[in-house]
Description:
The structure holds two protein chains of two kinds. By secondary structure, chain A is of the alpha/beta class. Chain A is built from seven helices and ten strands. Chain A has helices at 44-51, 74-84, 100-111, 115-128, 144-156, 174-191, 202-205; strands spanning 3-12, 18-28, 33-37, 59-64, 67-68, 85-88, 162-166, 194-199, 210-215, 218-224. In chain A, β4 and β5 form a beta hairpin. Chain B has helices at residues 5-17, 19-54, 86-95, 147-151, 161-167, 212-218, 238-252, 268-311, 313-321, 326-365, 379-406, 410-414, and strands spanning 61-66, 84-85, 99-115, 118-127, 139-142, 156-160, 178-181, 184-192, 207-211, 224-225, 227-232, 263-267. The longest helix of chain B is centred in the last third of the chain and has 44 residues, at 268-311. The model of chain B has no long low-confidence stretch (mean pLDDT 86). Chain B is an alpha+beta fold.
Amino acid sequence: MLIELKDVNKTYFGAQPLHVLKGINLDIDRGEFVSIMGASGSGKSTLLNILGILDNYDSGEYRIDGKLIWDLSEAKAAEYRNKMIGFIFQSYNLIGFKTAVENVELPLFYQGVNRHKRHEMAMEYLDRLGLKDWVGHYPNEMSGGQKQRVAIARALITKPDIILADEPTGALDSKTSVEIMELLKELNERDKLTIIVVTHESGVANYTNKIIHIKDGVIGEIEENRLHDSVTFSSDGALK
Amino acid sequence: MKFDIDRYKEIIDTLARNRSRTLLTGFGIFWGIFMLLIMLGGGDGLKAILRQNFGGFASNTIITGSAPTSKPYGGFKRDRNWLMDNTDIEALKTIIPETDIVTMMDAEWGRQMSYGENTYSGILKGLSYEYAQVETPQMLHGRWINEVDCSQERKVCVLGKRVWENLFPEGDDPTGKYIMVMNTYFQVIGVDARTAGININGSPSQSVVIPYPLMDRLFNKGGKFDIICVTLKPDSDSESAQERIRSLLARRHTIAPDDKKAIMMLDTEKIFSIVDNLFKGVNILVILVGLGTLLAGAIGVSNIMMVTVKERTTEIGIRRAIGATPRMILSQIITESIGLTILAGMFGILFSVLILWGAGTIVSGLPDMDGPISFQISFWTGILVLLLLAALGVLAGLAPALRAMEIKPVDAMRDE
């Protein structure tokens, strides 16, 4: 198993302690294309943060490829994130004053890859995602779909074990959403990438091969979705 | 920690692509450095101007002048006029061992001088060849009076700059020509360009200098004169020498030992030390004010960086999410801060150096100036300021960097 979660608990201690994750047990295998679906407040964002080593959990066990993720120093967590996880965010999270290619290069910069090498690689990834003519553009000169593809290139460039996509189509129109989901699907099928999509849209979830429902901090139903027919209205390609 | 060129390119990019932020942040430092250097350079320039005014004057000279007595003494009434003569010079030389040069000065004011149709009313000074060691002449043409001129009482003269300009308006070399003073012709042997200075018996530029023995004979002074200039050997105590000169002269001329008005004394060393101390004070003030301004600038940088760190929460969060460690963020912010301070500081240095250069050029061109005046800061001051800047950069970047370190990668997503 690539990802193993055993009885993971997380409580936010605010004015009112909030038990967000109440014993999550979840296994995700290498090469899977899964979605985690839930309403807002269901704990899916917290789960994503824990999966992405962006946040700590209180008890339980979380392993990536057998490595226990527990009590990591900030530096170690940064290194794991850099090497094992590629993030795709709803709001793209590109750095505004950097061009597309520079944004894609950034993870390699933090790995200490030299400039020529990382530039070459970033160009290659952008080319693969059909952004060859946009490499020198700044994020505000690109459409939402293009920005998200730059973000995907940035997530892919370190050849991570896991791609974590947090509402990847949240800011896109339905046509572009379809393109992005098709792209993720293709990456999963062709490059055997493990992709986890967190969403509250059933149409988006329907693209994935397995839908994990989360509700009130516990895993509910886990739907096999090989036929992509769990949501009827998206079967014709309309997502929204 | 890696120290490759990439890291610096990253910093330069960040600074260059957020231009208005960079400009605003850097301005405080620019201004601080600019003011500090302008004040330092300006202080040095003023000092140089003042020094030039005293320039050429031996710094250990005691000038002694005779004036009417102010107290009755030894049977004489007060208000008695007295003068000095060659025996006083000999006495000073033999009795006070610290003395180096002891030489007389005599002057006749408001004498008509003429060359052809050109006339000028100036001062005729009788000086010994030794006087050149009290006040170094700056010869524009020819030479100064020498020993033979004095011993043979040659009718030669050295023109002051203004005298020369008036008698020879064409600006040509007057050596060898004859000018007339009081129906006597003197052959010009040189032009002394000294303009400013400590004026003893009038400015050197308005004077015509002739050998003292000649002066004495022409005016029938009977070997009497009213000023003696004494230079002391190096490292002698001018205070005690001055007292002994006073008591010696008082004894020789029957003047009350405490009659300070009868024997006027001027110690150039004292004047120089006053000026030096003044400028030491000015320098301390300048440095204090400059450092204050600079510190205020650094605090400004720190402040603005603090705000920008807040503004850049998302950016820093993204960097953290994709693999930057807190240390990398820390070093990025501090390097940005150092880069910014040094960049802004360099502009400050450049601008102040340019302005100081301009000031130096303008002041040096003024007609009252003898030679070039430098307002420029020294190279090492520049280096020192640069090091100071780097230190300030670290200081200014510290608080913002620590705050940036606190930013968690989740904040990238939270701050929508």
